[in-house]
Amino acid sequence: MGQVPPDSPSEPTLERLLEHPAIWRGRSTARTATLGTGCRRLDEALPGGGWPAAGLTEILTARSGLGELRLLIPLLATLGCESPARWAAWISPPFEPYAPALIAAGVPLERQLVVRTADPAWAIEQALDSGGCAIVLAWFVAVATAHTRKAAPLGALRRLQLATQRSHVPAFLFRPLDAAAQSSPAELRLVFEPSLEGGRLQLLKSRGGERRPLEILWREWSAPNRSEPQPGESTRDIHGKT
Fold it and tell me: Which of 26, 101, 154, 163, by CA, is between 20 and 30 Å from 224?
C-alpha cells in the first residue's frame, strides 16, 4: 500500500495551513490580498505590501483633520477609476469633504457617498454588505461629544471585521488616540502623528510589518490622474479645514 507524498494536496503541510489569512501568528506575515498605498516606503512597511484588501483598518489620531485622510487619497483615486463603478462611502465624517482638493488628487466626486447617521456601526455594515461600495471610510467620534464619548463596542467592531471579509471590501475606521488602550479585532491598527510635510506612523497591530516608527513625506505619494490645484486650494486640506 503506497504512502501519500508529504506535498500531496490531500495532506496540507503546517506551513501551508499557517498561510491561511484567518490564522494570525503574532508578527508573522500571512499571504493576504493588499492594495497599494501609493507610497513605496509605506507599502514596504505594511504586511503584504499595502492596505488590507478585505479587512478592518484603524487609523488613530489625537484629533480629526491632522492630515490623516491623505494616507488614503491615492487609494480613493485608484478605486474610483475601476469598472464597474462603485461608491466610496464616507460614514459620519467630522468635516465636509473638500471637493476641489479631491478633484485635484484625481478622486471622482460622482463616486463619493457621504452618510450622516447616529449609528455609524450599522451604516458601515450596511455599506459593506450592499455590494455597491469599493471602500468604506468611517468616524465613530463624529457623533459624540467629549462628555458622552464612549468606547466603540467590541461586538460592533467584530461584526465590522467579519463584514469586510465577507464582502471583500476594505473599511478604514478613524478613531481617537485613546482607543489604542482598547482591544480591537481590526486586522491593522496604526497611529498617525502629523509633521510639517508629512507624518509619523507607528503600527500598533498587524500581521507582520515594520514595527519601528516610519517618517513619511507627502511628496513621496503618487497621485494618479492628478490635476494642478486651483489658486487658493493649497490652504485647504481634504477635510475642508483651513
Answer: 163
Buried b (16+ CB within 10 A) or exposed e, 93-127: beeebbeebbbbbbbbeebbeebeeeebbebbbbb
- For residues 159-174, average pLDDT: 95
Alpha carbon distance, N-terminus to C-terminus of the chain:
77
Instruction: Domain ranges for the chain, please list them.
Output: 36-222
| Across 6-20, 63-77, 125-139, 202-216, least confident range | 6-20
